[in-house]
Model the fold of this input.
Amino acid sequence: MPDFKYLARELTGKQVTGTLTATSEKDALSNLAARSLFPISVSLSEQSKQQAATGARRVSTKYLTVFYNQLADLLKSGVPLLRSLQLLEDQTSHAGLRFVIQDVREQVADGTRLNDAMRRHPRAFNFLTVSMVKAGEEGGFLEDVLSRIAAFNDHQEELKGKVTGAMVYPVFLLVVGLLVVTAMMMWVVPNFAPMFEKMERDGTLPWATTTLFSISDTLTSYGLLIFAVIAGLVGLVVTYVQSPEGRRFVDEWKLKVPGLGGILQSLAVARFSRMLGTLLKNGVPILQSLRIAKDASGNMVLAEAIGNAADNVSSGQSLAVPLRASGQFSKDLIEMIAVGEEANNLENVLIGVADNLEKRTSRRIDMVVRLLEPMMLLAMAGVVVFIVMALLLPVIKMSTNPT
Done:
C-alpha cells in the first residue's frame, strides 16, 4: 500500500508531521481522525509517487510473459503465492515490473485476491489477463491459467513480430519516397522555374509542368502550415480513435476494407477461438469463457457479437446459432463449432481452428506484403517519372521550336 505524508494538529493545537500507510487518501484521513488528529495536508510520499508513476507505465509483454511463466512454475512447485511474488520481485531487473509486483504482493498480503490486485495496474495487466486469473482462482487452476497466458502472449507476440517484420521494408520505402519527393519539390523544382518564364507568359507551358510548379510553389510557401494542419488532423483522429465511438468505428471499418478486412477478421477470430478453447480446456464454464474470450478478439464489433451470443447461450441455445446470426463469422467456422458442440469436443476444435486460421492468414499476409513492395516501387517510380517528364517536356518543346 502507498505511504502518505501528513501535516496535522493535535487537540492541543500542536502541529505534527509523519507518515502513515493507507489504501487511499480517504483512508489516510480516516486514520488521522481515529487518532484525534486534524489534517492540514495529506499527500503521497516521494517513494509512493515514484511507484505510482512507474506502475502506470506500460510493461513490455516479453517481461510479463517471463513473469507469468516463472510464477506458474513456482506455484506448481508448491511455493505459496506470497513467497512466489516476493522471489519474483527480488529477481526482476525491470524497474517498472518490480514496482508492479511489489504493489501486487502488498495487496495480496493484505487479503486482496490476486486478480483484484492486478486490476490496479491496467497498463501492465489487461482486462483479458485479469479475467483469466480470476477464473483460475475461482476454479483452482491458477498455475495452469498463468502458463496459458504466457503461451498466449508469446504466440501473439510472435505473430505480431512476423507482421511487423514483413511491413518494415514497405514502410521504409514509403517514408524514403515521400522524403525524396518532398525534397525535390521544395528545393530542386523551383530552380527550373526561371528557365520557363517566357513559355509560362506565352501560355505554351505543358500542363504537367504547370501542375508541377503549382505543387512546388504550394509546398514552398505553405509547407509548414500544411505540416501543422496534417499534424493537427492526425491528433484529432488519434483522440477520436481512442474514444469508444471512434474505436468502434475503426473496428467496423477494418472489417470492411477490401483485402485487408478479411485478414484482420481472420486474426481476430483466431485470437478469440484460441482463448475460448484454452478457457474451456481448463474447465471454465462456457458462459464465463465467452465473456472473457470476447475481448481477446481485439475488435469491438466481434466482441459485441460474441457478447450477444453469450446471452443467447445462457437461454439454452447452442453457440453456433447466435454466432451464425451475427454474420461476423464464416460458414466453415460455424459448422466446425456446431460439430464440436455435438461431439462434446469444442475446446480442441476451437484450438485447431485458431491454428488453421493463423497459418492461412500468415500466408495471406506474406502474399499481400510481396505485392505491396512492387506496387509501392511502381508508385514511387511513377511520381519520379512525372517530375522528370514535367521538367523535360518544356526543354524538348523549346528545342523543337526555338522561336
The chain has a mean pLDDT of 83.
